[in-house]
Design brief:
Layout (H helix, E strand, L loop, with lengths): L2 H16 L23 H6 L19 E7 L2 H12 L5 H13 L8 E4 L4 H7 L3 H13 L8 E3 L11 H8 L3 E3 L11 E9 L3 H12 L4 E9 L3 H7 L5
Parallel strand pairs: 1-6, 2-5, 5-6
Antiparallel strand pairs: 3-4
Helix pairs in contact: 4-6
The structure holds zinc ion.
């Protein structure tokens, strides 16, 4: 660590001792109202492209999940928030995003029976220290007072970069990548599972998870994400960001 980053880190530590972390907007970083449960300042809350409709609704027959519940359209704002959550080590942001996910679930008529997260492979987990999808699933479930089953899904095989892969290739890359942990199979029978991820672009990762959940007895799988791209066919044509 150089002297420069030492002072920046020390400065940050001193600041966070005086000010709690939640006084900064999770999107633009400006000082905001600490009472804001979403962690967003008024300006960002207004600018975010809120989009509650299932963006995959015209291609749902291609997926194993039954519905998609997004909060915003995936774009520069959502990317900024997700980058902070994923790469900035700002796991506290999961509480704010979890709040927005919980509010999204409350727009639905039917509540899921339990929450599960799209898992990371061990190698990725070691690098980052946490799986953002797990933090989000846990935070959202806690707010809704619904059960969250940690470790329900496991990523048993690393998939590598799927950035340039088309839908068919992604599907075959993801085959046998996920498994339901044998100790939790019994709790899935006939249940509606709320599968949580940070973003959905092509839906192929969530689809692979939904397949194993259903094979293990889940009756229904709904995908809850913060950001979703406006349409997977479009993403497929233009190349997708890493899901
Ligand atoms: Zn802001």
């Amino acid at each position: 660590m150089g002297w420069n980053s030492f002072w920046i880190d020390s400065g940050k530590a001193a600041l966070s001792a005086v000010f709690p972390e939640n006084i900064y907007c999770i999107c633009c970083g400006d000082v905001t109202d600490p009472e804001s449960k979403s962690g967003l300042c008024a300006r960002c809350a207004e600018k975010l492209p809120w989009a509650f409709e299932n963006p995959f609704r015209s291609y749902m027959d291609e997926f194993a999940f039954d519905d998609v519940w997004p909060c915003v359209r995936y774009g520069s704002y959502a990317r900024k928030i997700m980058n902070g959550l994923k790469n900035g080590g700002q796991s506290y942001m999961a509480e704010n995003v979890g709040q927005m996910l919980a509010e999204r679930v409350q727009l639905e008529w039917e509540m899921p029976d339990l929450f599960a997260a799209v898992p990371s492979h061990r190698s990725k987990l070691q690098k980052r220290g946490y799986n953002q999808a797990e933090l989000l699933a846990e935070a959202a479930a806690k707010r809704l007072k619904l059960p969250y089953q940690k470790g329900l899904l496991e990523k048993v095989r690393a998939t590598g970069s799927m950035r340039m892969a088309d839908g068919q290739t992604r599907r075959s890359m993801l085959e046998d990548s996920f498994a339901v942990s044998s100790q939790y199979r019994s709790i899935l029978q006939g249940k509606t599972v709320c599968l949580v991820d940070d973003v959905a672009t092509t839906g192929s990762t969530a689809d692979a998870c939904a397949r194993v959940l259903k094979a293990a007895g889940a009756a229904k799988v709904v995908l809850l994400v913060f950001g979703a791209s406006s349409g997977y066919k479009k993403v497929e044509e233009n190349g997708a960001p890493e899901a």
